[in-house]
Amino acid sequence: MQTLALKSPPGRGHKPTRVRVCDLDELPVGLGRAFTLAGRAVAVFRARDGQVFATDNSCPHKGGPLADGMLVGHQVVCPLHAFRFAAGSGECDQPGVCAVTAYPVEVEGSAVYLVLPAA
Ligand code: FES
User: Fold this and answer.
1) Could you tell me if the CB of 94 is within 6 A of ligand 1?
2) pLDDT value of position 4
3) 3 state SS of 5
4) DSSP state of 15
5) Is residue 36 within 8 Å of 3, Cβ to Cβ?
6) Which of 9, 20, 61, 62 is nearest to 42 (CA)?
7) Ligand 1 contacts CB of residue 114 (under 6 A)
8) Distance (Å, rounded) from C-alpha 26 to C-alpha 71?
9) Residue-by-residue pLDDT tens, the chain, 119 positions
10) Long-range Cβ contact pairs of 23-31 (< 8 A, separation 24 or more)
């Protein structure tokens, strides 16, 4: 897992914070990669169609590490019990299981940025 420091705290001034995460080529297609951004454990995924998604790394079911799971289409599959989460919205396919937090991702050229909400 890669930990990235921020030059200023996230959400300072009550604005979302845009953080450069990595280069697009550093994300394996169809798999997850874990990062720690400003104390948040985040899983970042690159789909086969080139879209990039980011969610919290901890599964809301029993804490499975989502970055160790796979991306099937645009769904994150938890490695522990195979619950699926919509990569864009974080909604779970199982009734009664909370959604995982999903983060906006922006790709500019080869650079991947994640937008953290205001504190
Ligand atoms: S811990 Fe993720 S589905 Fe159970």
Assistant:
1) no
2) 65
3) coil
4) -
5) yes
6) 20
7) no
8) 16
9) 666 655 444 445 578 899 999 999 999 999 999 999 988 999 999 999 999 999 999 999 999 999 999 999 999 999 999 999 999 999 999 998 899 999 999 999 999 999 998 86
10) 23/110, 23/111, 23/112, 24/52, 24/107, 24/110, 24/111, 24/112, 25/110, 27/52, 27/112, 30/70, 30/71, 30/72, 31/70, 31/71
The residue assigned the tokens 């079911």 is: 61
Question: Which pLDDT value is given to residue 11?
Answer: 44
Find the length of the chain: 119
pLDDT given for residue 6 in this prediction:
53
Domains in the chain, ordered, with CATH?
17-116 (2.102.10.10)
Work out which ligand 1 atom sits closest to the CA atom of 81. 3
d(CA 42, CA 114): 10
**Alpha carbons 9 and 26: distance in angstroms, whole number:** 25
Is 61's C-beta closer than 6 angstroms to any atom of ligand 1?
yes
> Do 51 and 74 meet the contact criterion of CB atoms below 8 Å apart?
yes
